[in-house]
Amino acid sequence: MSEHTERPERTTNATTATDSATAPDTTAANGAAATGNGTAPGTPTPAASVPGPEPEALPLFGTTWLRHDGGYGLRRAGASVGSLSAAVAACFVLRFAYQGLEIAGVGGFLDAVVVVMFAVCGAIAFRRTWEGFSRRPADPEGDASLRSLKMIGFVGSLLAYFVRSLTEAPGEGLRRREYETAVTEYERRRAARTGNPASRATPKTRRPKRR
After folding, report:
1. Distance between CA atoms of 29 and 27, rounded to whole angstroms?
2. CB-count burial class (<10 Å; 0-12, 13-18, 19+) for 196
3. Model pTM score
């Protein structure tokens, strides 16, 4: 009786093993369908980065100077009005300070020295600021040493900013030249790496030699 009872159990186990071997692997298929191109469902696709150099942002203008969009005209108008208003307000403050020296009676010589100092510092600040809109400083250390003079003559810097804003964003011409140069260099390097596509045509078939 023991032999007869063991045979059905063995037959059942063999049938179960056979069914497991022939059953399709639905887990792997479901996993492949869920992942798709190797990414989990719901994962956002990363945005493709635009190749090439990026334009340098300007204070108050950002990168709107490149295509003159994003309120570029309003930004220029705001920069002009703001810089001129600040320059006028600074002149009033300096006028009050000069009147304070006259009331204190410090002497005509000291009054003249103060006026000349502010005039010279204002002229230096205007020139340095104006040159900075069109070219990079050749000597950054020397330009940093004049920072105190530019702070004293800040009215000149404000006037230079105002005058430049009437034609373009302050520093736009310099950034545009640098950006166009960088784009040209990038295109040249990319063309050198990829080569001319026309020169990579299908090679000509060799003609059989005549005997």
Report:
1. 5
2. exposed
3. 0.64
Q: How many CA atoms lie within 13 A of 152 on its CB side?
A: 14
pLDDT value at 15 more than 60: no
Residue 89 has a pLDDT of: 95
Contact in structure between 153 and 126 (CB atoms under 8 Å): yes
**pLDDT single digits (tens) 90-106:** 999 988 888 888 888 77
